[in-house]
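Table 4 source record.
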Amino acid sequence: MPTVEPGQTLGHDGVGVVEAVGGGIRGLVPGDRVLIACITACGSCTNCRKGMHAHCTGGGGWRLGRLVDGTQAEYVRIPHGDFSLHKIPEGMDEEALVMLSDILPTGFEIGVLNGQVGPGDSVAIVGAGPVGMAALLTARFYSPAKIIMLDMDAGRLALARQFGATDTIDVSGGGAAEKVLAMTDGVGVDVAMEAVGVPATFELCQDVIAPGGRIANIGVHGTKVDLALEKLWIRNITISTGLVNTNTTQMLMKSVGAGQIDPGALITHRFALSQMLEAYEVFKNAGREGAMKVILAA
């Protein structure tokens, strides 16, 4: 990200223990165990009151690891702590809750909710990385009839089947759009989620969407993509984009506590902070290493 200054501490996910609180904090005390939301929010500005925490005008938004030092450290300062931290209920798996800092609410809010997944829907998720898997896990809340996961990594596709994908497609062999259409009687899917952030995957979503369908773009794009508006408008296609607001974190935490989903299953590797370079090397080579989510412990 061009807004990240050299030398800045990265990271916007995490759980931890409150060490000290500022004078304006009312809901937290030292010793509280907390989940850190990847989005900082004041909770009182116009956008926060709309639930648009990502666009907080009170000094919030996506700040950790981008505009201020982030979470990949022994200590981290959290602006607007009352609203940006969530107390962890007793007995919960704190490693699993790290997934609720970012990827689970991102897949849920920007993929499942924006895509308006409903009972009986057919869903295609393009990209079986952590966010795509989070979209898969939370899409099941709404009982879609078919969830097709597309990726080029056989290991991740196998994991997607364990998590509830009804069908998987290896896109490395080509013909992915044709395979999706064949699985949907030539119609296409009701919801297509883009969870990679490259032009080819967004174009694939356009190729497999059914009339009246919804394309939910989750991926972070760093270059322009082609929008086939001349083909989409006449088929009543809705396209949504977004930056996560983390306004579903409390609900997701209750779902995890009730055993409805197990985000801890996404964790594949664990490292100490002293092994930071090794951890980055593993995640850089995620396909070779079989990495999904990497946990760093202080």
